[in-house]
Amino acid sequence: MPPKGRDGPGAAMPADDSTADAQTPAPNTPAPRTIFSVPAPIKRIFDKVPLITYAPNELPYRAANEVDGNRLFIFTDDEGARLGKPSFNPQCLRWQAYLKFVGIDFHTIPSNNHASPTGALPYLLPALPLNTLVPIPSNKLQKWAIEQVHCEEEQQISMRFEVYASLLDTRIRNAWLYALYLDKDNFDAVARKLYIEPSTSNAVVRSVLATQLQQAARDELLKTSDYIDVSDLEAEADNAFEALSTLLGENQYFFDRRTPGLFDASVFAYTHLLLDKSMGWRHNRLSVLLRKYKNLVRHRDNLFEKFF
């Protein structure tokens, strides 16, 4: 998914008083200059205009005034938001699907990381209490949903949840990052269309954003390997699909649940986007691998038809 820039301008660090006192030059002795010394004219400017720490981004005005009910801010376009279509971003789609699965009504609102008060998507503005402007970030959405509808917390029911979730968070996600951001044809046909072109019309800014997205994906993949081997990434994803297929078996939902839950949403977030022809993939080797496992394809198709 797109990199999340969370670091904002920082405040100037105050000097440590004890250290400053110990190193104060004797009277009438000029302070020694170093390569880190700030020229006096520049220092006078900063003394008059000190650095400040900016507050978090404010919520979009229309978010609090034009839509009633719960509002989920995700990567989508205006048409997708109006029709309630699945987000094109796996992290957003995971929570969009989960809220639908547990029966919580909400409106989707197009947004991006830079417009998010939390610095990342998705986030939710609940309908209650009225006029609340305190967003609920994705890492607290499940807890909020459980409080609203008293649904089960799957992690407490099945010890296998975290084990199999790691397949999604590592093997499948890594293959996804390569396919979307580092495969040149896919990047130009899919990532540019979804993440870069809607952000700005400035060619220079688009070029910078493209470089940042690709470098962020490359850095992420190199955290666990000295080099990027696409064949290895695809093989690992295939192994993960096989494990998930075995886990699902002939059941309709994972862990033999009567209704879909968070794990179903997590799997759907990738399987749907890999099988969705409207994404515009140029090279989709992961889809070929996924289609070998008929029960995973059936799982995706059933959820899409029932909830979207």
Automatic annotation (TrEMBL):
<dbReference type="GO" id="GO:0007005">
    <property type="term" value="P:mitochondrion organization"/>
</dbReference>
<dbReference type="Pfam" id="PF17171">
    <property type="entry name" value="GST_C_6"/>
</dbReference>
<dbReference type="InterPro" id="IPR033468">
    <property type="entry name" value="Metaxin_GST"/>
</dbReference>
<dbReference type="InterPro" id="IPR050931">
    <property type="entry name" value="Mito_Protein_Transport_Metaxin"/>
</dbReference>
<dbReference type="Pfam" id="PF10806">
    <property type="entry name" value="SAM35"/>
</dbReference>
<dbReference type="GO" id="GO:0001401">
    <property type="term" value="C:SAM complex"/>
</dbReference>
<protein>
    <submittedName>
        <fullName>Mitochondrial outer membrane protein (Sam35), putative</fullName>
    </submittedName>
</protein>
<feature type="domain" description="Metaxin glutathione S-transferase">
    <location>
        <begin position="237"/>
        <end position="302"/>
    </location>
</feature>
<dbReference type="InterPro" id="IPR012336">
    <property type="entry name" value="Thioredoxin-like_fold"/>
</dbReference>
<feature type="region of interest" description="Disordered">
    <location>
        <begin position="1"/>
        <end position="34"/>
    </location>
</feature>
<dbReference type="Pfam" id="PF17172">
    <property type="entry name" value="GST_N_4"/>
</dbReference>
<dbReference type="InterPro" id="IPR021211">
    <property type="entry name" value="SAM35"/>
</dbReference>
<feature type="domain" description="Thioredoxin-like fold">
    <location>
        <begin position="90"/>
        <end position="186"/>
    </location>
</feature>
